[in-house]
Amino acid sequence: MISLTKILSEVNWKAVDDESVTKYKEKELKSSKVLKKMSKDGYTYYLTDYGTDFDDIFLGQIYVFSDDGQFVAENGIAKWNGESDEYMEALVSVHPDHRRKRIATNMYNMAERYFKKKFKPAPSKTSDAEKFWKNRNKKIR
Known about the structure:
Shape: globular
Largest sheet: 6 strands, mixed
Helix content: 25-40%
Low-confidence stretches: 1-11
Number of strands: 6
Strand content: 25-35%
Mean pLDDT: 77
CATH architecture: 3-Layer(aba) Sandwich
Number of domains: 1
Number of helices: 4
């Protein structure tokens, strides 16, 4: 079985068909407790309870579907470490056809409003993530 991280990595979004990923994510979403739902700019965002035994570290998951029902993005939300009250993303992935449409920004804004915490980038980032955080930090200042 291919891991979710591998399926949704920068290189592998196109390695699986969008319909299979969408069905998998719909099933995952249905088994989750939705904490907040938001529709914006042709996308619906679902902030869910992570639902694991690691609730002290993993706090939630955001699923994003386009208005036509395609799964297009997700964001795992975690504490920086189990002892800290700082928050970071655990996994952020946006389908290549839907990038540069403020989806990641909307996911972070949604999570920050819900958890009342500002997020920090994870230590390990892709080049796209580096650009995202550089621009996001400019706008915050």
